[in-house]
Specification:
The protein is mainly α and 188 residues long. The protein contains four helices and no strands. The longest helix has 66 residues.
Amino acid sequence: MPVTSRKRRNTRTSNHSNGRTKDAIALLMEDHKNVRQLLKRLEATTERSTDQREQLLSKIENEVKMHTTIEEEIFYPAYRDAVRTRDDKELYFEALEEHHVVDLVMPEIKSTEIDADEFGAKAKVLKDLIEYHAQEEEKQMFPKARKAMGAARLKQLGQEIEERKQELSTGLFGRTMERIRGGRRRVA
């Protein structure tokens, strides 16, 4: 679905107290920080804290899904269209593949018993994958994007990201509540 087909809202609808929209890179960096903190908390849990692990994993899954959707629908296509060199465009394809790998690992960790030894190992692998990906974006892709797109385009993308994030968070909240009500079965 082309991003340009969405109606644009007035920037005053931004959820920021000063009424000003952040640029796309600032918003994506906030997501990275949030997910890193959640992953760090998950890594610090033990098999005895199954409820905490379950809640953190659900939050991580929701945040990662929302973030990757936003990047793939809005930021990555804009980046791909703005950069000119083959190496810069290669970062786009690498980022998509890194998302794909996380998509493969997430069901693996979710299918592992929360209190199993393997859960901690899989959580560590997930953390490493996501941290590597975020660092690569922050050190390589984002500086190239800032140079290729400019401040005005990044602000425009920031508005689109905020709007899409609002749409996604509404849908993800409903699915999270459904999951909580259904509960996760644990082997005693």
